[in-house]
Design goal:
Blueprint: E1 2-6, H1 11-22, E2 26-31, H2 34-43, E3 46-49, H3 55-63, E4 67-70, H4 75-79, H5 83-101, E5 107-113, H6 137-145, E6 150-156, E7 159-161, H7 169-180, E8 183-186, E9 192-197, H8 198-211, E10 216-219, E11 223-227, H9 228-239, E12 243-246, H10 251-255, H11 259-262, H12 271-277, H13 286-292
Parallel strand pairs: 1-2, 1-4, 2-3, 4-5, 5-6, 6-10, 7-9, 8-12
Antiparallel strand pairs: 9-11
Helix pairs in contact: 1-8, 3-5, 5-6, 7-9, 9-13
Length: 298
């Protein structure tokens, strides 16, 4: 297949592109800079110059492909507090893809996040429905409800970890611990995040493009529930820093842009995803990657 990928030079995209190429697919990646274009070309992928605001260019990229994998998101706006703006831009991109692909039966794979399941009080499954008001909820729902396309959504955990992860939540927590002199966890630290290795997540996107049925919600989850206190303890141990509880009234001061996410409890199962696509995570777990040390060498 010829697969058009947004976010192709980013964290997950940098693992996905070679994964797709090794499987014999042709890849064209969206690139908004010369550096991103050069990275894609070096990997053996084609390049379409543009960004998420270039809806006409995105439609053309989709029209020329057999499948679209949409990874890119305006994270800068989200972390600056403009959640509505970032979500609105994401929905506009998805609607452009759906408009172009409608009636073709081609695959469109979107992206969601397991923190959307926070507060359920139980382990989330692939049957969960998120609200349109969630950060990527409207885009997610548009894809899985679409007809005339083979739409699916890969739902990523907050900790997609590996040596490729240089700007995700774990690097932010490490940087925060270095700046504050303490590795903090919210409250009693019993809230849980799911986790997956970047290479395992990339394999799931490939499988989704190849064979996920229309309307599929796919959980890229290797570990269902890693307590935040365990993450903070691993960071503190590797950095030689004290590990402390951060009360809710100090969360914004301590965690900065992660304050609105760090206390969420969102254990998530991937049992149905594994059964549906035969996906089995095989890379190291989150705490093992923290022990490996590369997060602390930057």
């Amino acid at each position: 297949m010829k697969i058009f990928v947004t976010g192709a030079s980013g964290h997950v995209g940098s693992a996905l592109v070679p994964e797709l190429l090794r499987a014999g697919h042709e890849v064209v990646g969206l690139a908004r800079s010369d550096a991103s274009a050069a990275k894609l070309e070096a990997q053996g992928a084609g390049v379409r110059r543009g960004d998420l605001d270039d809806l006409d260019g995105l439609r053309k990229g989709a029209a020329e492909a057999d499948a679209v994998i949409h990874l890119a998101f305006k994270h800068e706006e989200m972390f600056a507090g403009d959640y509505a703006g970032a979500a609105g831009a994401d929905l506009a991109v998805v609607e452009a893809f759906l408009d172009e692909l409608s009636g073709t039966g081609k695959a469109l794979i979107g992206t969601g996040g397991t923190l959307s399941y926070a507060g359920l009080g139980r382990t989330a499954t692939e049957e969960e429905r998120v609200a349109d008001s969630d950060t990527r909820g409207a885009a997610r729902n548009a894809i899985i409800d679409a007809t005339g396309v083979r739409g699916s959504v890969v739902v990523l955990p907050p900790t997609v970890h590996s040596a490729l992860d240089t700007a995700g939540f774990i690097p932010i927590l490490v940087r925060t611990a270095r700046e504050k002199g303490v590795s903090g966890y919210p409250g009693d630290g019993t809230n849980r995040w799911s986790a997956a290795h970047t290479l395992d997540a990339a394999r799931l996107y490939r499988l989704a493009a190849e064979k996920a049925p229309a309307g599929s919600v796919l959980h890229a989850v290797a570990e269902e529930a890693v307590p935040m206190r365990a993450i903070a303890e691993a960071i503190g141990r590797k950095m030689g820093l004290p590990v402390e509880s951060i009360p809710a009234e100090r969360a914004q001061e301590h965690f900065g842009p992660l304050a609105f996410m760090v206390s969420r409890d969102a254990p998530t199962s991937s049992a149905r995803t594994r059964a549906l696509l035969g996906w089995e995570p095989r890379e190291p777990g989150l705490l093992a990657d923290l022990e490996a040390g590369f997060y602390f060498e930057r």
